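user: Here is a favour to ask of a fellow structure person. I have my own habits and do not want them to colour yours. Could you put it straight underneath, so I can go through it closely?

assistant:
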Amino acid sequence: MDNYSSWESLPLVLQAKDVQMILGISKGKTYEIMNSADFPTIHLNKRMVVSKDKFFEWLNQDKRKIKRRAIYVSRKG
């Protein structure tokens, strides 16, 4: 897998492995995101890709919901 040092060094079309590396998530989560309705996936036969510009737009959109997990603190003692 390539390591990119800047946004400009990314290829014009990102593969799943590129999205995974950029977001720092698992392979399964990457495919879950790429299969979601609001992600701008391009299907090329069995491959899923996304244009760099559309990925950046998706990443910066305000309407995406961010899920936060509650932190539970034990009150022993």
In short: The first helix runs from residue 16 to 23. The helical segments are 16-23, 27-34, 52-60.
